[in-house]
Design goal:
single chain, alpha+beta, 8 helices, 10 strands, 26% helix, 29% strand, elongated
Protein backbone atom coordinates (compact mmCIF):
# COMPACT_ATOMS: atom_id res chain seq x y z
CA UNK A 1 0.00 0.00 0.00
CA UNK A 2 1.27 3.45 -0.87
CA UNK A 3 0.06 6.99 -0.28
CA UNK A 4 1.31 10.46 -1.20
CA UNK A 5 1.48 13.41 1.13
CA UNK A 6 2.16 16.97 -0.03
CA UNK A 7 2.86 19.59 2.66
CA UNK A 8 0.07 22.16 2.69
CA UNK A 9 -2.22 20.11 0.43
CA UNK A 10 -5.12 18.19 1.94
CA UNK A 11 -6.91 15.36 0.19
CA UNK A 12 -10.64 15.97 0.67
CA UNK A 13 -11.60 12.47 -0.42
CA UNK A 14 -11.91 10.03 2.52
CA UNK A 15 -11.00 7.17 0.16
CA UNK A 16 -7.57 8.67 -0.31
CA UNK A 17 -7.41 9.31 -4.05
CA UNK A 18 -3.78 10.39 -3.65
CA UNK A 19 -2.88 6.71 -3.33
CA UNK A 20 -1.16 5.65 -6.60
CA UNK A 21 -3.06 3.02 -8.54
CA UNK A 22 0.26 1.58 -9.65
CA UNK A 23 3.89 2.63 -9.45
CA UNK A 24 7.35 1.61 -10.58
CA UNK A 25 10.92 2.93 -10.50
CA UNK A 26 12.58 4.29 -13.65
CA UNK A 27 16.20 3.33 -14.43
CA UNK A 28 17.37 6.77 -13.28
CA UNK A 29 15.69 6.22 -9.89
CA UNK A 30 12.57 8.37 -10.24
CA UNK A 31 9.28 6.88 -9.01
CA UNK A 32 6.61 6.82 -11.74
CA UNK A 33 2.97 6.70 -10.65
CA UNK A 34 -0.50 6.50 -12.16
CA UNK A 35 -3.10 8.39 -10.11
CA UNK A 36 -6.70 9.48 -10.65
CA UNK A 37 -6.74 12.85 -12.38
CA UNK A 38 -9.05 14.26 -9.71
CA UNK A 39 -6.70 13.32 -6.87
CA UNK A 40 -5.25 16.08 -4.74
CA UNK A 41 -1.72 15.05 -5.76
CA UNK A 42 -2.50 15.17 -9.50
CA UNK A 43 -4.15 18.58 -9.22
CA UNK A 44 -1.31 20.02 -7.15
CA UNK A 45 1.37 18.69 -9.52
CA UNK A 46 -0.46 20.00 -12.58
CA UNK A 47 -0.83 23.52 -11.27
CA UNK A 48 2.69 23.67 -9.81
CA UNK A 49 4.07 23.26 -13.37
CA UNK A 50 7.88 23.50 -13.14
CA UNK A 51 7.97 24.68 -9.53
CA UNK A 52 9.40 22.32 -6.95
CA UNK A 53 6.51 20.53 -5.25
CA UNK A 54 7.80 18.60 -2.22
CA UNK A 55 6.06 15.29 -1.56
CA UNK A 56 6.50 12.18 0.54
CA UNK A 57 5.39 8.71 -0.46
CA UNK A 58 4.77 6.27 2.38
CA UNK A 59 4.76 2.58 1.51
CA UNK A 60 3.38 0.01 3.98
CA UNK A 61 4.34 -3.63 3.47
CA UNK A 62 1.65 -5.97 4.83
CA UNK A 63 2.18 -9.73 5.03
CA UNK A 64 -0.07 -11.62 2.58
CA UNK A 65 -0.85 -14.29 5.20
CA UNK A 66 -2.80 -14.14 8.46
CA UNK A 67 -0.23 -13.62 11.22
CA UNK A 68 0.17 -11.56 14.39
CA UNK A 69 1.59 -8.09 13.60
CA UNK A 70 1.04 -8.21 9.83
CA UNK A 71 2.90 -4.99 8.97
CA UNK A 72 6.34 -6.16 7.87
CA UNK A 73 7.75 -2.70 7.30
CA UNK A 74 7.37 0.85 6.09
CA UNK A 75 9.34 3.01 3.71
CA UNK A 76 9.36 6.74 3.13
CA UNK A 77 10.52 8.30 -0.14
CA UNK A 78 10.74 12.10 -0.15
CA UNK A 79 11.39 14.30 -3.18
CA UNK A 80 9.79 16.56 -5.75
CA UNK A 81 6.61 15.79 -7.68
CA UNK A 82 5.96 16.77 -11.31
CA UNK A 83 3.63 15.61 -14.10
CA UNK A 84 5.26 13.34 -16.67
CA UNK A 85 5.73 15.55 -19.73
CA UNK A 86 4.15 14.76 -23.11
CA UNK A 87 7.31 13.45 -24.77
CA UNK A 88 8.04 11.19 -21.78
CA UNK A 89 4.57 9.71 -21.26
CA UNK A 90 4.94 6.76 -23.65
CA UNK A 91 8.15 5.60 -21.96
CA UNK A 92 6.64 6.02 -18.48
CA UNK A 93 3.54 4.08 -19.50
CA UNK A 94 5.70 1.28 -20.90
CA UNK A 95 7.65 0.99 -17.65
CA UNK A 96 4.41 0.87 -15.64
CA UNK A 97 2.91 -1.74 -17.96
CA UNK A 98 5.96 -3.98 -17.51
CA UNK A 99 5.27 -4.11 -13.77
CA UNK A 100 1.46 -3.89 -14.01
CA UNK A 101 0.36 -5.37 -17.37
CA UNK A 102 -3.20 -4.03 -17.17
CA UNK A 103 -2.60 -0.58 -18.64
CA UNK A 104 -5.85 -0.22 -20.54
CA UNK A 105 -7.90 -1.11 -17.47
CA UNK A 106 -6.03 1.47 -15.41
CA UNK A 107 -6.58 4.26 -17.93
CA UNK A 108 -3.03 4.69 -19.17
CA UNK A 109 -4.49 5.44 -22.58
CA UNK A 110 -6.24 8.51 -21.19
CA UNK A 111 -3.13 9.62 -19.34
CA UNK A 112 -1.21 9.48 -22.63
CA UNK A 113 -3.67 11.71 -24.50
CA UNK A 114 -1.96 14.80 -25.97
CA UNK A 115 -4.31 17.14 -24.11
CA UNK A 116 -4.03 15.33 -20.77
CA UNK A 117 -3.14 18.48 -18.86
CA UNK A 118 -4.71 20.33 -15.94
CA UNK A 119 -7.61 21.57 -18.09
CA UNK A 120 -8.36 18.40 -20.07
CA UNK A 121 -10.83 15.57 -19.68
CA UNK A 122 -14.07 15.16 -17.77
CA UNK A 123 -15.11 18.18 -15.71
CA UNK A 124 -11.85 19.96 -16.59
CA UNK A 125 -9.41 17.20 -15.61
CA UNK A 126 -8.15 13.92 -17.12
CA UNK A 127 -9.43 10.69 -15.60
CA UNK A 128 -5.83 9.61 -14.98
CA UNK A 129 -2.49 11.32 -14.48
CA UNK A 130 1.11 10.15 -14.81
CA UNK A 131 3.35 11.68 -12.15
CA UNK A 132 7.06 11.52 -11.41
CA UNK A 133 8.66 11.71 -7.96
CA UNK A 134 12.31 12.75 -8.14
CA UNK A 135 13.86 11.10 -5.09
CA UNK A 136 15.78 13.30 -2.66
CA UNK A 137 16.02 11.01 0.36
CA UNK A 138 14.36 8.03 1.95
CA UNK A 139 14.28 5.54 4.79
CA UNK A 140 13.19 1.98 5.45
CA UNK A 141 11.98 0.48 8.74
CA UNK A 142 11.36 -3.24 8.32
CA UNK A 143 12.11 -6.68 9.73
CA UNK A 144 15.84 -6.09 9.27
CA UNK A 145 15.94 -2.75 11.09
CA UNK A 146 15.73 0.97 10.28
CA UNK A 147 18.06 2.58 7.76
CA UNK A 148 18.13 5.74 5.61
CA UNK A 149 19.12 5.53 1.96
CA UNK A 150 20.53 7.89 -0.64
CA UNK A 151 19.02 8.52 -4.10
CA UNK A 152 21.96 6.79 -5.82
CA UNK A 153 21.45 3.65 -3.73
CA UNK A 154 17.73 3.73 -4.50
CA UNK A 155 18.38 4.01 -8.24
CA UNK A 156 20.95 1.20 -8.19
CA UNK A 157 18.78 -1.26 -6.23
CA UNK A 158 17.39 -4.18 -8.25
CA UNK A 159 14.00 -5.81 -7.51
CA UNK A 160 14.17 -9.22 -5.91
CA UNK A 161 13.46 -11.89 -8.57
CA UNK A 162 10.72 -13.38 -6.37
CA UNK A 163 8.86 -10.16 -5.66
CA UNK A 164 6.11 -10.82 -8.21
CA UNK A 165 5.49 -14.32 -6.81
CA UNK A 166 6.06 -13.82 -3.08
CA UNK A 167 2.43 -13.38 -2.00
CA UNK A 168 1.23 -16.47 -3.89
CA UNK A 169 4.17 -18.57 -2.70
CA UNK A 170 3.72 -17.62 0.96
CA UNK A 171 0.01 -18.37 0.81
CA UNK A 172 0.74 -21.74 -0.80
CA UNK A 173 3.34 -22.62 1.84
CA UNK A 174 0.91 -21.62 4.60
CA UNK A 175 -2.04 -23.61 3.25
CA UNK A 176 -0.36 -26.66 1.73
CA UNK A 177 2.90 -27.08 3.64
CA UNK A 178 2.10 -25.85 7.15
CA UNK A 179 3.55 -28.93 8.85
CA UNK A 180 6.79 -28.73 6.90
CA UNK A 181 7.14 -25.04 7.73
CA UNK A 182 6.48 -25.76 11.40
CA UNK A 183 9.06 -28.54 11.22
CA UNK A 184 11.73 -25.96 10.47
CA UNK A 185 11.87 -25.20 14.19
CA UNK A 186 14.01 -28.36 14.42
CA UNK A 187 16.78 -26.26 12.86
CA UNK A 188 16.61 -23.69 15.66
CA UNK A 189 18.17 -25.83 18.37
CA UNK A 190 17.46 -24.66 21.93
CA UNK A 191 15.80 -21.48 20.67
CA UNK A 192 13.04 -23.47 19.02
CA UNK A 193 12.23 -25.60 22.04
CA UNK A 194 9.56 -23.23 23.36
CA UNK A 195 7.58 -23.11 20.11
CA UNK A 196 7.74 -26.60 18.69
CA UNK A 197 4.71 -28.06 20.43
CA UNK A 198 1.62 -29.35 18.69
CA UNK A 199 -0.42 -26.26 19.50
CA UNK A 200 2.25 -23.89 18.27
CA UNK A 201 2.12 -22.36 14.83
CA UNK A 202 4.70 -21.36 12.23
CA UNK A 203 3.63 -18.88 9.56
CA UNK A 204 5.81 -18.14 6.50
CA UNK A 205 6.18 -14.37 6.73
CA UNK A 206 8.66 -13.33 4.07
CA UNK A 207 10.42 -14.84 1.10
CA UNK A 208 13.25 -13.48 -1.04
CA UNK A 209 16.23 -14.73 -3.02
CA UNK A 210 18.29 -15.11 0.15
CA UNK A 211 15.92 -17.15 2.31
CA UNK A 212 12.64 -17.69 4.14
CA UNK A 213 11.45 -15.84 7.24
CA UNK A 214 8.99 -17.65 9.54
CA UNK A 215 6.98 -16.24 12.43
CA UNK A 216 6.52 -18.72 15.27
CA UNK A 217 3.51 -18.28 17.55
CA UNK A 218 3.38 -20.17 20.83
CA UNK A 219 0.07 -21.82 21.66
CA UNK A 220 -1.67 -20.57 18.50
CA UNK A 221 -3.95 -23.59 18.41
CA UNK A 222 -4.21 -23.45 14.63
CA UNK A 223 -5.44 -19.85 14.33
CA UNK A 224 -4.49 -16.27 14.90
CA UNK A 225 -7.94 -14.65 15.12
CA UNK A 226 -7.48 -12.28 12.25
CA UNK A 227 -3.72 -12.20 12.41
CA UNK A 228 -3.18 -8.89 14.21
CA UNK A 229 -2.90 -9.57 17.95
CA UNK A 230 -0.84 -12.12 19.82
CA UNK A 231 -3.10 -12.54 22.85
CA UNK A 232 -0.09 -12.54 25.17
CA UNK A 233 1.50 -15.50 23.38
CA UNK A 234 5.19 -15.65 22.64
CA UNK A 235 5.92 -14.56 19.07
CA UNK A 236 9.32 -14.48 17.39
CA UNK A 237 10.78 -14.59 13.90
CA UNK A 238 13.44 -16.88 12.53
CA UNK A 239 15.34 -16.55 9.29
CA UNK A 240 16.32 -19.62 7.26
CA UNK A 241 18.96 -18.71 4.70
CA UNK A 242 19.42 -20.59 1.44
CA UNK A 243 22.92 -21.95 0.67
CA UNK A 244 23.10 -19.40 -2.17
CA UNK A 245 20.73 -16.78 -3.57
CA UNK A 246 18.05 -18.17 -5.88
CA UNK A 247 17.38 -16.61 -9.27
CA UNK A 248 13.90 -17.91 -10.07
CA UNK A 249 11.02 -20.04 -8.81
CA UNK A 250 12.61 -23.29 -10.02
CA UNK A 251 15.73 -22.66 -7.92
CA UNK A 252 13.49 -21.60 -5.02
CA UNK A 253 11.69 -24.96 -5.05
CA UNK A 254 15.00 -26.80 -4.80
CA UNK A 255 16.19 -24.52 -1.98
CA UNK A 256 12.96 -25.05 -0.01
CA UNK A 257 13.10 -28.83 -0.47
CA UNK A 258 16.66 -28.76 0.85
CA UNK A 259 15.50 -26.79 3.93
CA UNK A 260 12.62 -29.16 4.62
CA UNK A 261 14.84 -32.24 4.15
CA UNK A 262 17.42 -30.81 6.58
CA UNK A 263 14.71 -30.20 9.19
CA UNK A 264 13.30 -33.72 8.79
CA UNK A 265 16.66 -35.53 9.02
Amino acid sequence: MASLEIPGVEDPDPLGLSAPVCRTVAPEGDVLMLLPGDSAAARAAAYAQDDDLPAVMEITDVAPVSVPHRVRGRAWVAGWLTPVRTEQRARAAMLLAERHPVGELLGIGEALAPDAGPDAGHQGRPAWALLRLEVGEGAVDDLWGAEPFEPDDFAAAAPDPLVAHEAELLQHLHSAHAEQVRGLCALLGERGGAVCGRRDQAVPLGLDRFGLRVRFVQGAGGGTRGGDGDGGRRVFDARFDFPEPVRDVAELRRALHALFDAAAS
